[in-house]
């Protein structure tokens, strides 16, 4: 059974046995009750450490969730602290507004660039876990909105680990489980009530032989970028090719990543997106731009109205015509934003798919 190698130290560390298995969990909306139910099913003797990313407001402390989990769990539940050595039977929750990573069997807590618009991000944790523990990792996506965790499960599968998803019909918010099922070859899809028993069974199977040297190089590169917070254009160029798109978070160039089963993009400063997350970001930016355009047109209409009221003759008539033209543009934009924007994402996706087939 493979164990991650320990860190080289100049002192004699206290003996800590690395956990045979690593369970990583990503969840968002509806996550607090789901996590409470899941951890209540896990015994303190489970031969695994559990690392959790729950999307939390940046200003929250995380203590309320830790207290709630502790009341329902036999495991020791705690907020992740940088450089902590992970142990079996312990649960570590990513602090608000911080990424949770692993280097060998130690936690890294960083404030790196957001992935899919999130910090902490499940994808960031899942990739780091897969690179450090390989086939010893069991990745889980629970209830939540949008797409975080989808690419992360693909990372885990590429490194030999297992992917588990909450049954979307059982999830309070089905978007995250559905995204994972749509894009990744999931090993187990189960309702929350049966997930604890599944994890107990999986973690008592003997581990297959593995060689961490076989971890894909592109994942090692991305994990290293996340640890250092920022990468270089050369590093990103090694794992992808530049495309005529810009990062919605920093405005930098984007590279389309060449490996894996999930279409993804990354800028050299560290922001990363699945195609669906990038599409959502672009949609939000488009809506904001159109609302700004409406505001500017409304201001122009007010100014023209004032000018027309002070003029006379042909000049005043011309201003009235300009006002009517502006009203028409404003009404069209309002109608699009209020009634048509929900269809824009599907239209863009269909256009992209047709262009890809051309």
From TrEMBL:
Regions annotated as coiled coil: none
Catalysed reaction, written as an equation: [protein]-L-glutamate 5-O-methyl ester + H2O = L-glutamyl-[protein] + methanol + H(+)
Gene Ontology CC terms, in alphabetical order: cytoplasm
Active site feature: 28, 55, 148
Listed CDD domains: CheB
A GO molecular-function annotation: protein-glutamate methylesterase activity
GO biological process: chemotaxis
Residues in CheB-type methylesterase domain copies: 18-201
Pfam families the record matches: CheB_methylest
Record's keyword terms, sorted: Chemotaxis, Hydrolase
Top-level class of the enzyme under EC nomenclature: hydrolase
EC number(s) per entry: 3.1.1.61
Protein name: protein-glutamate methylesterase
Naturally occurring in which organism (per UniProt): Hymenobacter wooponensis
Lineage of the organism: Bacteria, Pseudomonadati, Bacteroidota, Cytophagia, Cytophagales
